[in-house]
Amino acid sequence: MIDFLAGLGRTGLGWFAVLGRASMFLVRVLFSQDAVLRRFSLTVAELYSVGVRSLLIIVVSGLFVGMVLGYQGYITLVNFGAAEALGGVVALSLVRELGPVVTALLFAGRAGSALTAEIGLMKATEQLSAMEMMAVDPYRRVFAPRFFAGFVSMPLLAALFSAVGVIGGYLVGVGLLGVDSGAYFSQMQAVTDWREDVVSGIIKSVVFGFVVTWIAVFQGFDAEPTSEGISRATTQTVVVSALAVLGLDFILTGLMFGDL
Amino acid sequence: MSREPVDDTPHVVIEDLVFRHGRKTIFEGLSLTVPRGRITTVMGPSGTGKTTLLRLIGGQLRPASGRLWVDGLEVARLSRRSLYTLRKRMGMLFQTGALLSDFNVFDNVAFPLREHTDLPEELIRHLVLMKLEAVGLRAARDLDPSQLSGGMARRVALARAIALDPQMIMYDEPFAGLDPITMGQIVTLIRRTSQTLGLTSVLVTHDVVEAMAISDQVVLLAEGRVMDMGTVDEVRGRASEWTSQFLEGRPDGPVPFHYPGIPYRDDLLGEQESRT
Amino acid sequence: MKLRFLEVSVGLFVLLGIAALFYLAVQVSNIAEYRDSDTFEVTAYFDHIGGLKVRAPVTASGVRIGRVSRIAYDPERFQARVTMAIQSDHDYLPVDTQASIFTAGLLGEQYIALEPGGDYEMLQEGDEMLFTQSALVLENMIGRFLTNVSAD
User: How far apart are CA A201 and CA A101, in angstroms?
Assistant: First the structure.
């Protein structure tokens, strides 16, 4: 029994230690952000690998989610004679929740895990150490551009997801199921508030971008320099990011849309 | 053509160094000096902290107590900027070469030049070709690190380490896992660069034969402290029990062959008795 | 060559993202309604506001001309005080305009509909609307219905 409690305590302390390391890491990365402008070509390269490469999965997923929303929304609304409200339902679901959250989860899986693996591999092959010994600060050269790229890409990707989803809902609702095309958009505009809905969604995706990129880059930095360590770190990026995003979504939704 | 060192003061001085990793003490009261412009080899069994020593000299690790000077500067007390300035005068060759995987051979060697100097590209090109020629890999300049053999990667890493014309180079296990020909190439390169550039070289290895062939000074490290230090002949002459076993590679001696435990006979008989 | 492709695609990516944001702003949401931020406030007291919420629309002849900005309970008059922000170019509302709380559709949100009166004086900033009609409360309606039925 005592052993169990001691083990529990050790695990808890371990988490605090990780959080501490992660925070110190974050502070140093944030202070190295001036490198983003000075080494702009590095940042552009990272924006490509993190943002552009995620475009396909985000756009395709957005389209499918929008189409499913259109379909499911129609089936439910038509029972109340309210099929014309489909536009609003699709738009709000996407802009408030699905856009930021699903994009964050997909991003963590695609770009986040890639970042972790890349950095972990650099650590395992002593490239980070070599850089330090060549008097090049890895925080400025490796971590800061990647962090900035992830942080900036996420809101853009989430907006794309929502926009494409709205179109997907249109394709199914208006194209397939006969909802009036004018009604689709006019109802949507009537219920979707720029500040309350769209901007809240953007704020969410900015927060998610910050957190997911932080987790991904730190996990790579903190990984054990073995192949086992790297694969474990990559898995953890996805798992921890997912939990963090969903947890933060709950808190943010409560703050923004409710009375939390 | 070799250059005589301008300065006779030691390049690295270590005094009473104590370093711990978790609960394990790696160095306890370690003291040694590295003479300028010469090749010093630090030898010892695996796990005695030879790589750790290089990291302490390079300032990547901080000692628990004791003092370490490089070129008269106390490394542990330097600010980050001063440390980085010091590191520009040091080169380090990692065991795997540690070439940057995003760049090809040419860009790898050009990396320190591009990062730390404002030289125009044509000049950088000349310098890079010069360094690659010195290690014999000028024609390989467009290859990717993944296309290089272990020995070639290490040679490129050496070219990169001398890119800024440092005053000291540290080699972490430069001979490990190489075939005889490649090993011969590395040995020649280390000796040649040290002599032609007048560098202080610190080698860390347990390949006794190669090390003894080129070293000016040998330091034997075990159990967290210096067991012996001196020229190759001095150390051979003084050989203690332990030193002899290490230098000649005898399987048994002060470092035992058998993992410590109860005697063989008692172990066998003990099992039989518990069964009856 | 490789660098050029990189830069172009990143530029396109950022452009696409911003375009999506614009699309969401213009086509999807009601950002057009934010343009007129010049408003003047008037208050109205109701016995019952039903499900009226802050930011509910204020309409005249069905056209939205403002929003509900504040709802509070007035303990001196024992009524609900609703403050409305009406767009400044609609300064032609007479002081005897009536404010009624209606429901949009059967299950829709509640909003305030203004019916202009005939007075010569116009509503200004800080004025109180004197004629109001509270929201219909379902229980009262049912009670009245039952009373009517039993009276027959």
Answer: 9
Q: Is C27 on the interface with A (CB under 8 A)?
A: yes
* Interchain CB distance below 8 Å, A131 and B100: yes
With touching defined as 3+ CB pairs under 8 A, do chains C and B touch? no
Mean residue pLDDT of chain B comes to: 83
d(C-alpha B138, C-alpha B128), whole Å: 9
DSSP codes of every residue in B67-119: EEEETTEEGGG--HHHHHHHHTTEEEE-TT----TTS-HHHHHHHHHHHH---
pLDDT one-digit tens code per residue, B195-206: 888 888 999 988
* Preferred mutation among B115, B118, B162 to probe A, highest tally of A CBs within 10 A: B115
In a domain, C144, yes or no: no
Alpha helices in chain C (DSSP H): 2-23, 138-151
The pTM assigned to this predicted structure is 0.80
DSSP state of B3: P
Number of compact structural domains in chain C: 2
Mean pLDDT for all residues in chain C: 82
Q: Is A125 on the interface with B (CB under 8 A)?
A: yes
Judge whether B186 and B180 are in contact, CB under 8 Å.
Answer: no
Judgement on whether residues C27 and C41 belong to the same structural domain of the protein: no
Query: Could you tell me whether strands C131-133 and C98-103 are parallel, antiparallel, or unpaired per DSSP bridges?
Result: parallel
Enclosing domain of residue C49: 36-139
Arithmetic mean of pLDDT, A185-214: 87
Report ipTM (2 d.p.).
Answer: 0.79
Q: Please tell me the predicted confidence (pLDDT) of residue A168.
A: 93
C33-61 mean pLDDT: 81
